[in-house]
Design brief:
The protein has 349 residues and is an all-beta fold. It folds into two domains: 95 residues, Immunoglobulins (Immunoglobulin-like), CATH 2.60.40.10; 229 residues, YVTN repeat-like/Quinoprotein amine dehydrogenase (Methylamine Dehydrogenase, Chain H, 7 Propeller), CATH 2.130.10.10. Helices cover 3% and strands 52% of the residues. It has an eight-stranded mixed sheet with strand order 25-26-27-28-10-31-30-29. A five-stranded mixed sheet has the order 2-9-8-5-6, with no helix packed on it. Strands 11-12-13-14 form a four-stranded antiparallel sheet, with no helix packed on it. About 4% of the residues have low confidence.
Length: 349
């Protein structure tokens, strides 16, 4: 078995392909010529866009769009070639507005752009092991000013706490109202941001006092899962293959990427951590961490964390979840929901 396929199994359990061809939305006058469309493309490729005119209409011009961005125009039914190298991974929605005989109409279709990156199997070494509260249904884990913060889920038992991971001493804990299921946290611009799962509600706290300053409603119809930041923008997950980019000043979703390992979407992206320009991500229900390129969503590396399971003694322990990078020690801390251990690790290729 190729290593590439082995990494698929780590992330997905089985190799899930998203093949199936283009989604055709034909109209009666013009359609994209899909005879030479491939089921999937890679970023180094280009796609030939050409229209069929079965009713022999007299065409004046055509304007082409990809993902609603105009890419070209042509006189008559002239074909164009579109390079995919600068597109985000995922489905590319194709549209042509055709001007003919004093009228206009649209033709639409789509193709899928997948990753051409072969992920590396990364190695890790356990540096230290610490006790972890088995009552903590871990959703978020992050260092702020050398101190570890953790957020938890479950309605009626959701909170975030600031504590000494070496001794377990809790410095401060903030409990959520019982109607909320707490999710990920992140610190940026001296604020602590926290998500909830299905309540479409987030919270903004003062990072120093931990007092609540603002409650906000999600601007997209999504769930709240994991969070991290690059020092300027927040990145958050919603349980799909998407990682959303949010402006913390306006709380607006300004962009997103789709996470792909080779030709497969990696769904259920969960807790996130920004480490040296890459996004480390838990994959829900998998003892694995994917290292994601934040620009295009390609998985660059995979950490198989299944070896940690043998150290977990709590019989009610659930999935791996929780990644925190300590810039002071340059080590990564990982744990899971109701795990009795917190692991400090170093990662290498």
């Amino acid at each position: 078995m190729k290593k590439y396929n082995f990494l698929f199994i780590i992330l997905l359990g089985t190799i899930l392909s998203n093949c199936g061809g283009a989604k055709k939305e034909n109209n009666s006058l013009f359609t994209f010529d899909t005879a030479h469309f491939k089921e999937q493309y890679q970023p180094q490729e280009s796609i030939e866009l050409n229209l069929l005119n079965p009713n022999s209409k007299e065409v004046d011009s055509v304007v082409y769009f990809v993902n609603d961005a105009k890419i070209s125009s042509a006189k008559g039914l002239g074909k164009i070639s579109f390079e995919l190298k600068n597109q985000k991974l995922g489905y590319q929605n194709l549209k042509a507005i055709i001007y003919y005989e004093g009228e206009n109409t649209e033709a639409t279709d789509r193709v899928e752009l997948v990753s051409n990156v072969e992920p590396k199997l990364l190695k890790y070494t356990v540096v230290n092991t610490f006790a972890h509260d088995t009552a903590s249904f871990t959703e978020g884990l992050e260092f702020h000013n050398d101190t570890l913060f953790e957020s938890t889920g479950q309605k009626g038992n959701s909170y975030f706490r600031k504590y000494d991971y070496k001794t377990g001493k809790v410095y401060k804990q903030t409990n959520l109202d019982a109607k909320y299921f707490g999710e990920g946290i992140t610190f940026v611009n001296n604020k602590l941001y926290q998500l909830t799962w299905q309540e479409k509600t987030g919270f903004v706290y003062n990072a120093t006092t931990l007092k609540l300053e603002k409650t906000f409603t999600y601007k997209k119809d999504i769930e709240g899962w994991g969070m991290t930041n690059d020092g300027k923008y927040i990145y958050q997950t919603d349980g799909t293959e998407k990682i959303w980019k949010m402006d913390p000043a306006t709380l607006e979703m300004i962009d997103y990427i789709n996470v792909y390992s080779g030709n497969a979407k990696i769904k259920s992206i969960n807790e996130l951590e920004w480490i040296n320009g890459q996004i480390y991500s838990n994959v829900w229900q998998k003892d694995a961490i994917a290292v994601v390129n934040p620009t295009n969503g390609s998985v660059k590396g995979v950490l198989d964390m299944s070896g940690l399971r043998k150290f977990i003694k709590n019989p009610t322990a659930e999935v791996l979840n929780g990644i925190a990078y300590n810039p002071k020690t340059k080590t990564i801390f990982v744990t899971g929901k109701n795990w009795d251990k917190l692991f400090e690790i170093k990662v290498s290729e």
